[in-house]
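Exercise 7b. C-alpha cells:
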C-alpha cells in the first residue's frame, strides 16, 4: 500500500498500491465487512506513487509511474489528464510536461488551482488545474555533474517555498514565485544514489524534515541550511514512498519504519525539536509505508507492505471515522433468512408448500414439482444432432433426381465391363469402319513411346 490520503473532513479515505488500483473507502457507509465502495485503475500497468486530496476535498491528485499527473473527483471520476513532454528535447524548460516517470506531488496550501509534481526527468513542475496542456512553471534540479531524479517535493505551509529532494543526495529550497534559475538554498543532505522518500516543512516554515533512503531522519533549519540540527540513525527505510509528517499540534514527527519479513514493523513518533524517540507503536508483521494524522477526527491511519490499512483511534479523543464502524452493530439475521431451515433440499419444495402436505395434497404437489424440475432440465438441455442420416432431405433429393449419383459406390471396372458387349455390337467411335474393316486395328503404342518420322524430327 504505497499511497494514502484522507479528505479534509476525515470522512473518506483513498488508497493506492502496486496492484495499480485506487480504492475509495467511506467511513459513514462502511460496515463490518470493511469493503471499499469503488475501485478505479487510473492507468493500466502503472503503480500508484502518491494520492492527495485538495484543500477543499473536491479533487484528488493522482501520481502514477507514468509521465502524466491526473485529477479525479471525490467520487472517483477522472476530471483531467495533464500533458506529457517531448522526450527528444534536451532542455527541460522547453517541454510542456514531464518526459519521465512522475514520482511525487503536492497541492498548494491555499490556492486550490495549483499543485506541483516532481519527476525522474530532474524537474519540478507547477501546474494549474485549468490548463492541462502545459505547465505553468518548471524548476530544473541539476546535480553537481548531471541530471538527477527528483524523489520528493513539498510546499511550505505559507506557500512561499518549495522543497525538493533528489537521488544525488541534494536537498533544495526554491522560491515559489521564482526566479527558478537556481535554488535559494541547497545542501548535500543524504547519501548519493539513495532516494529520499519524503520531506515536509514545519508549521512555521522555519524547519524542514527529510526522510532519507540512507536510513536517517534529519531536521534542518531553513534559515541556516548547512548542517542538520538533529539526526536519527538506523531508521530502516526500504520503500521509496515512505513519508514523514508533523502532528497537527507540531509537537511530534511521525514516520513509518521498515522491517524484514519475519519481524514487526512500527510507527516512529519523534520529538519535533530534538528528534528523540517519544514512542514506537507496533503495527504488524510488515513494513509501515504511509502515515496520516487527521485533526478533524483525531485518528492515525497507516499502510503496510502487505497491503493492510490500520486505523488507530482513541475511544475518548477521536471523533467519527473508524469509531462509526466499531460502534455500528452487525445486522441481526432472522431465523427465516436461513433457507436451510425452511427448504426440503432433497424434495425441492419450500416450507410454506410443505405445510399443505397435511391437507392431503402432498402427492399431487410432489408430482407437480418433479414435472417442473424435468421441464427445467429439458429447457436447458442442448439440441442433440440427428441420428437418422439416411433420411437426410438433401441426400434423398440427389438420389432420386440424379441417376448417376449411385455410381459413387460402385466398382468402376465392373461398371465398364457391363457395357463391353454393347460396345462390341454397336460401337460409337468406330462405327464407320464396320463394313470395310470389321476387325478394328488400333495402334499398339501410344503417347511418348511412338517415335516421330525422321522428316518431322527437330533439327
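Sequence design result:
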Amino acid at each position: 500500500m504505497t499511497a494514502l490520503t484522507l479528505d479534509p473532513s476525515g470522512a473518506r479515505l483513498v488508497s493506492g498500491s502496486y496492484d495499480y488500483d485506487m480504492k475509495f473507502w467511506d467511513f459513514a457507509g462502511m460496515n463490518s465487512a470493511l469493503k471499499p465502495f469503488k475501485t478505479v485503475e487510473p492507468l493500466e500497468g502503472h503503480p500508484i506513487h502518491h494520492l492527495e486530496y485538495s484543500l477543499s476535498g473536491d479533487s484528488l491528485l493522482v501520481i502514477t509511474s507514468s509521465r502524466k499527473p491526473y485529477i479525479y473527483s471525490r467520487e472517483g471520476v477522472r476530471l483531467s489528464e495533464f500533458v506529457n513532454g517531448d522526450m527528444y528535447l534536451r532542455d527541460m524548460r522547453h517541454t510542456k510536461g514531464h518526459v519521465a516517470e512522475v514520482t511525487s506531488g503536492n497541492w498548494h496550501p491555499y490556492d486550490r488551482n495549483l499543485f506541483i509534481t516532481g519527476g525522474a526527468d530532474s524537474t519540478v513542475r507547477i501546474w494549474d488545474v485549468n490548463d492541462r496542456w502545459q505547465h505553468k512553471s518548471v524548476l530544473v534540479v541539476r546535480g553537481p555533474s548531471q541530471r538527477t531524479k527528483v524523489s520528493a517535493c513539498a510546499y511550505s505551509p505559507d506557500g512561499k517555498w518549495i522543497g525538493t529532494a533528489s537521488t544525488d543526495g541534494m536537498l533544495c529550497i526554491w522560491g515559489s514565485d521564482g526566479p527558478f534559475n537556481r535554488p535559494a538554498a541547497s545542501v548535500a543532505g543524504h547519501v548519493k544514489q539513495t532516494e529520499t522518500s519524503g520531506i515536509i516543512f514545519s508549521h512555521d516554515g522555519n524547519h524542514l524534515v527529510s526522510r532519507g533512503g540512507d536510513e536517517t531522519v534529519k531536521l534542518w533549519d531553513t534559515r541556516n541550511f548547512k548542517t542538520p540540527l538533529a539526526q536519527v540513525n538506523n531508521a530502516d527505510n526500504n520503500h521509496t514512498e515512505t513519508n514523514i509528517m508533523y502532528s497537527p499540534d507540531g509537537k511530534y514527527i511521525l514516520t513509518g519504519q521498515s522491517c524484514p519479513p519475519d519481524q514487526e514493523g512500527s510507527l516512529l513518533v519523534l520529538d519535533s525539536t530534538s528528534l528523540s524517540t517519544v514512542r514506537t507503536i507496533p503495527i504488524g508483521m510488515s513494513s509501515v509505508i504511509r502515515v496520516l494524522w487527521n485533526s478533524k477526527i483525531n485518528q492515525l491511519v497507516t499502510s503496510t507492505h502487505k497491503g493492510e490499512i490500520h486505523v488507530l483511534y482513541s475511544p475518548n479523543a477521536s471523533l467519527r471515522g473508524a469509531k462509526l464502524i466499531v460502534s455500528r452493530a452487525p445486522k441481526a439475521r432472522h431465523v427465516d433468512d436461513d433457507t436451510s431451515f425452511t427448504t426440503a433440499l432433497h424434495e425441492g419444495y419450500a416450507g410454506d408448500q410443505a405445510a399443505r402436505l397435511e391437507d392431503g395434497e402432498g402427492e399431487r404437489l410432489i408430482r407437480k414439482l418433479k414435472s417442473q424440475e424435468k421441464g427445467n432440465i429439458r429447457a436447458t438441455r442442448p439440441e442433440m444432432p440427428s441420428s437418422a442420416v439416411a433420411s437426410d432431405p438433401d441426400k434423398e433429393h440427389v438420389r432420386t433426381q440424379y441417376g448417376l449419383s449411385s455410381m459413387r459406390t460402385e466398382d468402376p471396372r465392373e461398371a465398364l465391363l457391363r457395357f463391353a458387349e454393347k460396345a462390341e455390337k454397336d460401337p460409337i467411335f468406330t462405327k464407320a469402319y464396320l463394313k470395310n474393316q470389321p476387325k478394328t486395328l488400333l495402334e499398339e503404342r501410344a503417347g511418348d513411346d511412338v517415335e516421330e518420322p525422321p522428316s518431322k524430327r527437330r533439327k
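Instructor comment: Residues 86 and 138 are 14 Å apart (CA to CA). The helical segments are 322-327, 351-354, 362-380, 393-401, 412-417, 420-425.
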